[in-house]
Design goal:
By secondary structure, the chain is α+β, with helices and mostly antiparallel strands. The chain is about 35% helix and about 35% strand. The strands form two sheets. It has a five-stranded antiparallel sheet. Strand 2 and strand 3 form a beta hairpin. It starts with a helix and ends with a helix.
Amino acid sequence: MIKKILLIMLLLPLLAEAQTFERAKKDFVEELNAILKDATTIHWAFSDKMTVEKPFEISQDSMLSVTVRYTTDSTFYDVCMRAPMKQVDVVMQDIYIIVFFKGEDVGHYKSPDNSTEQEFVYNDNMFFVGDSLDSSDNPALLRLQAKLQALLPFYRKPK
C-alpha cells in the first residue's frame, strides 16, 4: 500500500505537467484560430478570397501548421505553412500578426491552380497568422503573446 502511495505521489507532478502542457498548447492554437477566423488573408502576396482548409494545429511531432485556400471566380489554390514549435521565438505585428522563428524553419507551400497537391516554395523565419488593422496594443496580439509565453517553456526545457 505504501509503495502505491509513493508511486502516485511521484506520478502526480508528471500528470499535472502533461495536463498543463496540453492546456497551454490548446489555448495557443485556439487563439491562433480565432485570429485566423477574423483575417481576410494571411500573407500580402495573396489577395483572393480566403477560407480555412486546415486550421492551425500542433502535431504529435510538434510541428505548427495551417492551410488556407484562396479562390477566384474560376480557380483555387492552397497555401500552407509548417514549422517546428521548438524554434518559435516571438509574436509581433505589423499589418500582419506574425510568429517569428529563430531560423529559417518555416516551410511555405502552395498548390498549383485548381489542385490540392502542395509544392514547396521557400523557407524563412516568418509564420503569418493573419492580417490585423488594430494597433500595436491589439488585444488579440497581446493574448497570443501571453499564450505563447505559457507554452514556450515546454518546448525549451531539455529532454
